[in-house]
Amino acid sequence: MAQMTMIQAITDAMHTELKNDENVLIFGEDVGKNGGVFRATEGLQAEFGEDRVFDTPLAESAIGGLAIGLALEGFRPVPEIQFFGFLYEVMDSINGQMARMRYRSGGRFSSPITVRSPFGGGVQTPEMHADSLEGLVAQQPGLKVVIPSTPYDAKGLLIAAIRDNDPVIFLEHMKLYRSFRGEVPEEEYTIDLGKADVKREGNDVTLIAYGAMVHTCLKAAEELEKEDVDAEVIDLRTVSPIDIDTIVESVKKTNRVVVVQEAQRQAGIAANIISEIQERAILHLEAPVLRVTAPDTVYSFAAAESVWLPNHEDVIEKVNEVINY
Q1: Torsions phi, psi of 234, nearest 5?
Q2: How far apart are CA 313 and CA 217, in angstroms?
Q3: Is-contact 35 41, C-beta < 8 A?
Q4: pLDDT tens digits for 280-309?
Q5: 166 neighbors 198 (Cβ within 8 angstroms)
Q6: Contact yes or no for 149/237 (Cβ under 8 A)
Q7: What is the C-alpha separation between 303 and 236, in angstroms, rounded?
Q8: Of 34, 138, 143, 161, which is the most buried if we count CB atoms within 10 A?
Q9: What pTM did the predictor assign?
Q10: Could you tell me whether strands 290-294 and 257-264 are parallel, antiparallel, or unpaired per DSSP bridges?
Q11: Average of pLDDT values for 204-218?
Q12: pLDDT above 90 for 246
């Protein structure tokens, strides 16, 4: 297997699908010759041409409209929204149009669109670039929302997303782009959308997370092991739909849960996960389900984000609460 960063795995996935399917098109701001602001599409225009990998104007609403029109004509668009903090400019296209295309057309049309976008804190971005807005799309029926945490998952999930016949929002945490390498098969493969992954087995408490917070939980689990606390870490991978079956099976084993998200307490998807657990597995709980989140304020300026963002010590504190309840 090759050793890849997440950004390399994402590029490899797009290269695979451009080669496999002539109807796959990639477009967005600066994704062509420049390869995107993070170089995720670097080299793709040179190999596949300007008709299949091309730049658009600085207009997210136009990018969304173009994706819808191309999908209706039989293409598989992979538009990039340069930062997910700019979701509001394309919200109607995503939540108002893509998500309901199959239903409103009685199954005659679909939206095989994969909207890629970076998000997330810890990299000192300007205002409105790091916001975790996944909750705004996860609450919209008709959309799948995918957030990988490893290079292996990123490639397999992105290929699966591009091949899906309905719209997928594929969110890439900026801090994970080049922070580490992982083994990634050079051949093509897919990972089922809507299926969580148990990144660490444990018996005492379940930690549920997605994106960069998976690594925060794994670090917390290592520290907790020194205190004889055996933590299981579940990586949701897809935050809509949620793999509730995997979660419930873990709850039955550990009887204690902490949900961890980078988004603010009132945002993200933690509240929905907690509600599902209470409805489906309350008799297996030995303590209330707790959560670790950012505070309910707008995202902090870069100078204060290290204080604002959740960290592994916050996770350990909540685990100790549920253990000692």
Answers
A1: -105, 125
A2: 10
A3: yes
A4: 999 999 999 999 999 999 999 999 999 999
A5: no
A6: yes
A7: 30
A8: 161
A9: 0.97
A10: parallel
A11: 98
A12: yes
